[in-house]
């Protein structure tokens, strides 16, 4: 609560210092490792194998610590959201539907999750214009609220193939030959941090 009650200038300063001090600390660690191993004394020696390539002083160590921290952070989230590797077209409640599954494996679940799907494929207009990446929305329940998810267990997401669907006039054989991609976008908040 002390940080929340601070003036915005001090909150911003604490925020910036948290990153800068962390990067400086790890930059010093990388520099200390290179110094102790003797990598800094053998910069021009091509026969020498350094602990980490291209670390030739404190500035490069500092930049390496920034680059290492910023590339490692967000990758963990992708490991916890799981999408099925295959989508199926099948009957559900006497209607033809395109279905796939999505699940959240985290201990702290995503809240207020919503899902969208887009069909991306090349298109030729009636005027002869070629659009290489035409995007069409696939309805996954926006009208009924089924696009709002409660991800406590894996869910099956369904797109009804009706006269509004881009798959309405597509036969099974054409579907197997067509070149297209379906991009699924899942948005939400992490329960623990909001």
TrEMBL record:
Residue ranges the record marks as coiled coil: none
GO MF annotation, one: inward rectifier potassium channel activity
This protein's record includes keyword Membrane: yes
Segments traversing the membrane: 12-33
Signal peptide: none
Its membrane topology: Multi-pass membrane protein
Record keywords, A-Z: Ion channel, Ion transport, Membrane, Potassium, Potassium transport, Transmembrane, Transmembrane helix, Transport, Voltage-gated channel
GO cellular component, one term: monoatomic ion channel complex
Entry-linked Pfam families: IRK, IRK_C
Ranges where the Inward rectifier potassium channel C-terminal domain occurs: 81-194
A biological-process GO annotation: regulation of monoatomic ion transmembrane transport
SUPFAM superfamilies, sorted: E set domains (SSF81296), Voltage-gated potassium channels (SSF81324)
Subcellular location: Membrane
InterPro entries: Ig_E-set, IRK_C, K_chnl_inward-rec_Kir, K_chnl_inward-rec_Kir_cyto, Kir_TM
Residue ranges of domain Potassium channel inwardly rectifying transmembrane in the record: 1-78
Reaction catalysis annotation: K(+)(in) = K(+)(out)
Family membership noted in the UniProt record: Belongs to the inward rectifier-type potassium channel (TC 1.A.2.1) family.
Protein name, entry field: G protein-activated inward rectifier potassium channel 3
């Amino acid at each position: 609560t002390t940080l929340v009650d601070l003036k915005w200038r001090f909150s911003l300063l604490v925020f910036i210092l948290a990153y800068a001090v962390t990067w400086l600390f790890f930059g010093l660690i990388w520099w200390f490792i290179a110094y102790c191993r003797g990598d800094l004394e053998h910069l021009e020696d091509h026969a020498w194998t350094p602990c980490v390539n291209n670390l030739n002083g404190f500035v490069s160590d500092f930049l390496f610590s920034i680059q290492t921290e910023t590339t490692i952070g967000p990758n963990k989230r992708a490991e916890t959201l799981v999408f099925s590797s295959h989508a199926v077209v099948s009957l559900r409640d006497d209607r033809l539907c395109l279905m796939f599954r999505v699940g959240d494996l985290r201990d702290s679940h995503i809240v207020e999750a919503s899902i969208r799907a887009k069909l991306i494929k090349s298109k030729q207009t009636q005027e002869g214009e070629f659009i290489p990446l035409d995007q069409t929305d696939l309805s996954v329940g926006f009208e009924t609220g089924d696009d709002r998810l409660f991800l406590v267990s894996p869910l099956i997401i369904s797109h009804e193939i009706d006269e509004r669907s881009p798959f309405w006039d597509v036969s099974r054989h054409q579907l197997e030959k067509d070149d297209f991609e379906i991009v699924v976008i899942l948005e939400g908040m992490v329960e623990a941090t909001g």
